[in-house]
Amino acid sequence: MRFSGWRVLREGLTGNKGWAPHWRDAEPKAEYDAIIIGGGGHGLSTAYYLAKEHGLTNVAVLEKGYLGGGNVGRNTTIVRANYFLQGNSEFYSHSLKLWEGLEEDLNYNVMHSQRGLINLFHSDGQRDAFVRRGNSMINQGDDAVLLDRIGVRKHLPYLDFDNVRFPIYGGLLHPRGGTARHDAVAWGYARGASDRGVDLIQQCEVTGIDVENGQVRGVQTTRGAIRAKKVGIVVAGRSGQVAAMAGMRLPIESHVLQAFVTEGLKPCIDHVVSFGMGHFYISQSDKGGLVFGGDLDFYASYASRGNLPMAEHVMEAGMTLMPMIGKAKVLRSWGGIMDMTPDGSPIIDKTDTKGLFIDCGWCYGGFKAVPGSGFSFAHLMATGNHHAPAAKFRLDRFRTAVGLMDEEGTGSQHNLH
Ligand SMILES: Cc1cc2nc3c(=O)[nH]c(=O)nc-3n(C[C@H](O)[C@H](O)[C@H](O)COP(=O)(O)OP(=O)(O)OC[C@H]3O[C@@H](n4cnc5c(N)ncnc54)[C@H](O)[C@@H]3O)c2cc1C
């Protein structure tokens, strides 16, 4: 089934009876060439690129709940390539290029909107840091524009520029940054993978990983044992628990991150905006809701709802930056489980078990990485070689302390990244 303007028109005129399900709901087979554990954004994109780029179609994605029910459907949908450090910078740059061709590639409207992202700064020191970041982005081939106060005011006239504690000095504009529709990204990849022969198996929790003589043999699931020559673990906040099934202890802590959405409003916030002095960032969804969030709750947890002090902190920061937001009513809030690494950067690597691969540690920034991560992880699983843009995401950097990528400069405390 292909989507087109003509098809939408025809279905609209004939009662919408011709739409087929977007993907096959497959039954598990006894054996696959490769199994992906986790039907989130990264798992589905990995399966898609395994099939599309490497011709590997005897593949299953095993999801314990429903496709897209994890963080891929819970995030605040920001897509950007504004990283500073080598290693991260080239990876996110590659991922953004994939985003830019994604709708055509998947023949699916993921509502990718490059509306521009502005990071505000509130001191001379912060300006210096953003100038360095902007230069690094430009050197990488991405776009960055330094705005002074007047420049920011032209884009965001509604901010409190003369706030006594946190006056706005300027901002770094990333014009190609923006948002995308999170569910549609999961559904588009699911559809693309299923069309190419990948089995997407929902309500199938992996409960064990079978390893014999240092080689992975398959997995145990709530729907029986399934054999496989290769297994990829892509389970975000559950990475530590699933890796433990193969005897691994990961340098990951799981933490909750909350998000909030208001009632639908007329268009008022055109960009993605982030406050430089408190934990608050915001955009407006196509339905009109203001979607915003802040920092992690500061303790490790597997709960997918957050604490009230962090909700209060986020609301206060929002009111400080843009007092007009106080008139909007918050409709919903929720939390997702973040797989935090000690340096805040991800892991895409082989493990000591032959045939067992891992893709995790995306912290609170893994939505924008969905295309890039799937592409690079599929490359690694199919060829055994690291894909160049993701080549620095090695697991052993936490043992050797060589090649750490600490974007925030906050050291090795998981919840500070
Ligand atoms: C509130 C919030 C805001 C965020 N905002 C942004 C943002 O603006 N921009 C950005 O880039 N990133 C953002 N993120 C981060 C981003 O959502 C995550 O990094 C990313 O979605 C994680 O990868 P995933 O999509 O594969 O995870 P998930 O969708 O969580 O996929 C993992 C899947 O594995 C499944 N699973 C777990 N255990 C098992 C098992 N034993 N067997 C089978 N399946 C299993 C889970 O059910 C889940 O579906 C945000 C996250 C949250 C929670």
Describe the biggest sheet? 8 strands, mixed
Structural class: alpha/beta
What's the order of the H and E elements?
A: HEHEEHHEHEHEEHEEEEHEEEEHEEEHH
Strand content: 25-35%
Low-confidence stretches: none
What is the helix tally?
A: 11
Bound molecules: flavin-adenine dinucleotide
Radius of gyration: 21 Å
Helix content: 25-40%
Mean pLDDT: 96
Separation, N- and C-terminal Cα atoms: 42 Å
Can you count the beta strands?
Answer: 18
How does the overall form come out from the CA principal axes?
globular
Précis, in short:
This protein has helices at residues 5-13, 41-54, 88-100, 102-106, 124-139, 149-155, 182-195, 239-244, 308-321, 370-383, 397-400, and strands at residues 31-37, 59-62, 78-79, 117-121, 145-148, 170-174, 178-179, 199-201, 206-212, 215-221, 224-233, 253-264, 272-274, 281-284, 289-300, 330-340, 347-350, 356-360.
Features:
417 residues, alpha/beta, eight-stranded mixed beta sheet, 28% helix, binds flavin-adenine dinucleotide
Question: What does the model show?
Answer:
With 417 residues, the protein is α/β, with parallel strands linked by helices. It contains 11 helices and 18 strands. The chain has helices at 5-13, 41-54, 88-100, 102-106, 124-139, 149-155, 182-195, 239-244, 308-321, 370-383, 397-400, and strands at residues 31-37, 59-62, 78-79, 117-121, 145-148, 170-174, 178-179, 199-201, 206-212, 215-221, 224-233, 253-264, 272-274, 281-284, 289-300, 330-340, 347-350, 356-360. The mean pLDDT is 96. The radius of gyration is 21 Å and the shape is globular. The two termini are 42 Å apart. The structure holds flavin-adenine dinucleotide. Flavin-adenine dinucleotide binds at residues 37-43, 62-65, 69-72, 74-78, 205-206, 234-236, 238, 242, 257-259, 293, 336, 362, 364-368.
